[in-house]
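Sequence, please.
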């Protein structure tokens, strides 16, 4: 038996790259997969899955479209009778420095990433809530895709970083709101060779040895989070690079200063050293996460 044997999974943006790798591994581990993308590539991935005895259907549509994402959830239920796992993966980049970025470049990236995570999750949540009220006790899973850009910020990616940071917040919201219905929600921040990174020399495949940036390296983490073995894991964020999995701790209060009554700017400035202590007051190197 596979890790997700008998489960029904949706993978968005699964016509290539990370999404394709996730869909293929989920299918090989026993899941029935709905392969979503905006073009013909979804059908090609379905053919890959079915040619090896797996079960899959294609859904063509934008995940940021309200009706299309609702139809995506309905496709899973109509084709396979249920929905257990939603892997939100679809996205693209339009990189520019903030002072050169236009409105459309900002809106389009936020739309496909942030709204494109919300819409399928919202419609899946409606279905799972109904199932829970009808007596279903099955564990359900959402696996979102954020980025180190969303966790640490990335120069030249105001749109992408903002959307990916929003996805971290969405993950926490869905983990809290849907817990009572047996749904867990987590996010991964993958570092891999995809259409977004393939032009960067550091992501080139090595001539020999372990290919650290092969997108298939990320998929076992997705399968684990989709499986019952991770049913008690929710609201978490993982950076995944090659064979490394980093658990990310979210915002926390690191120091405080108190005043009896309202602060003045001068008084707060005088105690800023107490507030910061030995901590760096600046961002340091832009885009440097400290993870190699």
């Amino acid at each position: 038996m596979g890790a997700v044997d008998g489960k029904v999974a949706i993978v968005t943006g699964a016509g290539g790259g990370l999404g394709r790798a996730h869909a293929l591994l989920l299918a090989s581990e026993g899941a029935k997969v709905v392969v979503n993308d905006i073009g013909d590539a979804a059908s090609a991935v379905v053919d890959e899955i079915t040619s090896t005895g797996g079960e899959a259907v294609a859904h063509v549509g934008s995940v940021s479209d309200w009706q299309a994402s609702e139809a995506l959830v309905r496709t899973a239920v109509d084709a396979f009778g249920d929905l257990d796992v939603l892997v939100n993966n679809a996205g693209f980049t339009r990189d520019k420095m903030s002072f050169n970025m236009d409105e459309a470049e900002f809106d389009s990236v936020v739309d496909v990433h942030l709204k494109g995570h919300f819409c399928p999750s919202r419609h899946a949540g409606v279905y799972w809530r109904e199932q829970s009220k009808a007596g279903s006790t099955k564990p359900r899973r959402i696996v979102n895709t954020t980025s180190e850009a969303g966790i640490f910020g990335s120069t030249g990616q105001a749109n992408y970083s903002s959307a990916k940071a929003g996805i971290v917040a969405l993950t926490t919201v869905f983990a809290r709101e849907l817990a009572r219905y047996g749904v867990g929600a987590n996010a991964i921040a993958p570092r891999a060779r995809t259409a977004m990174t393939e032009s960067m020399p550091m992501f080139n495949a090595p001539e020999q040895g372990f290919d650290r940036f092969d997108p298939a390296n990320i998929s076992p983490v997705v399968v684990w989070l989709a499986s019952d073995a991770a049913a008690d894991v929710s609201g978490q964020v993982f950076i995944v690079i090659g064979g490394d999995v980093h658990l990310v701790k979210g915002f926390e209060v690191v120091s405080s200063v108190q005043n009896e009554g309202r602060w003045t700017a001068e008084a707060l400035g005088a105690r800023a050293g107490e507030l910061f202590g030995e901590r760096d007051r600046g961002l340091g190197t832009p885009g440097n996460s400290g993870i190699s």
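The first helix runs from residue 17 to 28.
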